[in-house]
Amino acid sequence: MSAAMQPCKRGRMVVPPIQRKGRVVSVSESRRTTNLAILDGLGNQDTFTRWAATPENQCHSFWRPGVWTFHRVRVDAQGNAWSMHGGEYVMDDFGFLVKVPG
């Protein structure tokens, strides 16, 4: 096992953040969600989230476990944070996230 990866409960692995040229990529997992976040240190952030269980605020019939949602935050020159929902993604046969049309 790599010294960078540490075991945690239920056989899952905790992967430390990866830093490259001012960007940080982190993967976090909780009981209900998996998050992939890309941050640039200036307040800008792209986050992909997948729910492993029905979110408490949603009806079970709307929950789709194979779908990742995308959320983007950008900070402008005046320091204002702007956010948007960037759509839904699914994983293709090669493990890449692909945007769902519509």
What report would you give on this structure?
The protein has a domain at 19-55 and 62-94. The strands form 2 sheets. The chain has a 7-stranded antiparallel beta sheet with strand order 3-4-5-6-7-8-9, with no helix packed on it. Strands 1-2 form a two-stranded antiparallel sheet. By secondary structure, it is mainly beta. The model is unreliable at 1-8 (pLDDT under 50). The relative contact order is 0.13. The chain has strands at residues 6-7, 13-14, 18-20, 23-29, 33-39, 45-51, 67-75, 81-91, 97-99. The chain is built from no helices and 9 strands.
What is the distance, rounded to the nearest whole angstrom, between the alpha carbons of the first and last residues? 42 Å
| H/E element order | EEEEEEEEE
Mean pLDDT: 76
**Which structural class should the secondary elements be placed in?**
mainly beta
Largest sheet: 7 strands, antiparallel
- Radius of gyration computed on alpha carbons: 16 Å
What's the total helix number?
A: 0
Per DSSP, what share of the residues sits in E-state strands of 2 or more residues?
A: over 45%
User: What's the arrangement of strands in the largest beta sheet?
Assistant: 3-4-5-6-7-8-9
Q: In total, how many beta strands? A: 9
Poorly predicted regions are 1-8
Give helix % range: under 10%
The rough form would be described as globular
State the oligomer: single chain
